[in-house]
Amino acid sequence: MLGLIVGAAIVVIIALIAILTYNGFVAKRNRVQDAWAQIDVQLKRRYDLIPNLINTVKGYMKYEQGVMTKITALRSSIVSGSIQDKAQANNQLSGALKSLFAVAENYPDLKASESFKNLQDQLAATEDKISFVRTSYNDYVLDYNNALQVFPGNVFSNIFHFKPSEFFKAPEEAEEPVKVDFSGDDSSDAMQPKAQKAASKKQKAQAQQPSAPKDDGE
Length: 218
What we know:
Elements: H1 2-57, H2 65-77, H3 83-103, H4 108-111, H5 114-149, H6 153-160, H7 172-175, H8 194-208
């Protein structure tokens, strides 16, 4: 009789642990999904603002068409693909926009445009919001993933088929700002892979080296 009572108590305890663990997983996963929804809203807002920015600046920056084409291409990437794809595109787009705004300093009429200043402020505010909600999202992902991996969560996560979430963080090379060449000499450099960039820089350095002086006796 005592054995049955002990066995029943153990079953009840395990069932309670399973229920509490399952509910904990659901609550943590919901926080992750809610935080991601906030990031997605800001990414879509940036997506919607960029065409207005391009239309505003193209009348002034007639020689930067290649750069604006790249920004347009990156725009489509921030709302499609996996979380990592969106994170990488978002980082690259941030770098390209910063370069575009830096070059705008050379266009006084554009700087004075109320439409341009308004778009610049809205895009800056959107980027700040993305950065803020990304921090919250990654904190929730860390908390959720830890719950899935520590005991007894790792046991029940396999039973209930809970999967870890991805961090909103691009690879290290994607975190570096995109260097956009506005000189018009070679607009393709901005999106070249690192290896190609290094080779291009080496070739340019060799081309710039002074040639050996000719012998006066020749």
